[in-house]
Amino acid sequence: MKINNRIVLMLAAAIALSGCTSQPEQINHYLLHSSNTQDIELKNTDRVIAIQAIKLAEYLQSKHIVMQLSNKQLQFSHHHRWAESLQSAIGKTLRDALNQHSKQFHFINAKDNNNGEQYSLSVNLDHFLIHQESHVLIAGDYSILQFNNPTIKRKFHFNFSLEEDGYAHSVEKLRYSIDALAKMIVSDEKRLQEKLSEYKASN
Length: 203
Fold this sequence. Notes:
This protein is an alpha/beta fold.
């Protein structure tokens, strides 16, 4: 009788263990573009800049959040992923940040543009990741073009320290890094206006 009870207990334990191992792995998804973004009032201007689709380095073209472990080693998180295409998410986040900070121009995503705007913004992202040494990194270059001719071209490279552990805080800092990029682009408005004045004077 005791032997039978022992066998039953062993079978029950085996079934319980198999049930645990068959549970689906928990995968966390993160929004880069804030769902709490307030509607931004349209500026009274005819100066519209269309943001072209963000060009991402090949290793960023997946939904896995990337962490840099060393100069030559990257880790793609299986359990922590972007909730949407990173290209689309960065485009929307950058657009909202630019419209928040810009005084002279209104920015739209190029796919929403049916008028063939005179000015456009092109952004190439070489790095957009979390570094294991407690900071996030965004780097690349951008160009502001007039009729597809580069008017302004600059490189950017930002590091922001992490004050907390966890992917949620890191994503928040990555969102902040896009805001910093937007401020850098907006700082070129005076230079862009001068270029536009020169262009008009010569035509």
